[in-house]
Design goal:
This protein has 13 helices and 13 strands. The protein is of the alpha/beta class. α6 links the parallel β7 and β8. α10 crosses α11. The longest helix has 20 residues. The two termini are 15 Å apart.
């Protein structure tokens, strides 16, 4: 039977979800949760640094293993390949690519919008003054990241299409290097890398996500794990929410904790954290409207292999585990 406390799936795939749930319950429940995260996964980094999940999951006889990734797409690929159980926050664009690849993932939580926490930047001495001037220019960004959609949406607003620029798919580290040596004309990046580029390389913002892209970040689990260990997800969800409240209420302490982990100075951390909401909440259908807009934009640019229904994904229900 479908575990009612874990996930729900809407539409024609309901029967398949029921069968999958039955299969999941036939297997022994995992005793380790493998967590993937990025350097920008602030709340997860806080929990890792403080050993919170290890303490809270010990009574559930569950251990934690940590795995760092450079960006969201490879993180969700690992989740889909059953090399991870839980993914720290990834940008709203990343699940769309994972869905198009047939990944069996479940939304566990969503962070409220942080539109200014990602931006299109140019060097201080760049002649470019508007997004419209990116036509024919080389722009660096991480494929499938929130920055990818921000670029598409900003170009459209400026009367351009993705085909009007020369894309350079780069990890944050490679993007920073290319940006500083002038190998790309513009860079689309998110915090804390954005704040670091502004403070250390004097990057100038052409456009951020205000009025263009909400930049909501999502926490996900493999559907298999969500069905088998809803109790573990309850703990992770609760601790992420607490961590978000702590970071916003204690900015200096949070910056002191994160600065050595990120390898950036305190003012940069404070600036980056000031632009992120860190408000962890349940993912509900009404809050996923922009996901379809993102999916349609990528499909229109032929960046997705097939059209996807962004709402056709299981949702974890916090507080319903028994």
């Amino acid at each position: 039977m479908t575990p009612s406390f874990a996930v729900t799936r809407r539409g024609a795939l309901g029967a398949l979800a029921t069968l999958s749930a039955g299969a999941a319950w036939a297997q022994p429940a995992p005793t380790t949760v493998r967590i993937g995260y990025q350097k920008s996964s602030t709340l997860t980094v806080v929990l890792k640094s403080q050993g919170t999940l290890e303490r809270r999951l010990a009574p559930l006889n569950t251990k934690v293993s940590w795995h760092e990734f450079t960006s969201g797409l490879p993180l969700l690929e690992a989740l889909n390949l059953d090399n991870l159980d839980f993914s720290a926050d990834v940008a709203d664009t990343v699940p769309v690519f994972a869905q198009a690849a047939g990944a069996q993932l479940t939304f566990v939580a969503q962070e409220a919008p942080s539109p200014t926490a990602q931006a299109i930047v140019v060097r201080a001495d760049s002649p470019l003054r508007s997004v419209a001037e990116l036509k024919g220019r080389k722009v660096g960004f991480a494929k499938a990241a929130g920055a990818h959609y921000l670029l598409i949406a900003a170009l459209e607003q400026a009367g351009l299409s993705f085909k009007d620029i020369e894309p350079a798919y780069l990890t944050p580290a490679d993007g920073r290097a290319a940006f500083e040596r002038g190998a790309i004309d513009a860079w689309v990046i998110w915090d804390p890398f954005l704040s670091a580029a502004q403070r250390q390389s004097h990057a100038r913002v052409l456009a951020d996500g205000t009025g263009i892209a909400s930049y909501q970040r999502y926490y996900l689990a493999s559907t298999r794990f969500a069905q088998a260990r809803a109790d573990v997800l309850e703990v992770i969800y609760a601790e992420l929410a607490k961590a978000g409240q702590w970071v916003k209420a204690n900015p200096d302490a949070a910056a002191a904790l994160l600065s050595p982990v990120w390898g950036v100075d305190l003012p940069t951390v404070l600036q980056a954290n000031g632009r992120r909401s860190y408000a962890v909440r349940a993912a509900v259908p009404a809050g996923l409207a922009e996901q379809q807009k993102i999916a349609d934009a990528f499909f229109a640019e032929k960046l997705l292999p097939r059209r996807v229904n962004a709402l056709d994904i299981p949702l974890f229900k916090p507080g319903s585990a028994t």
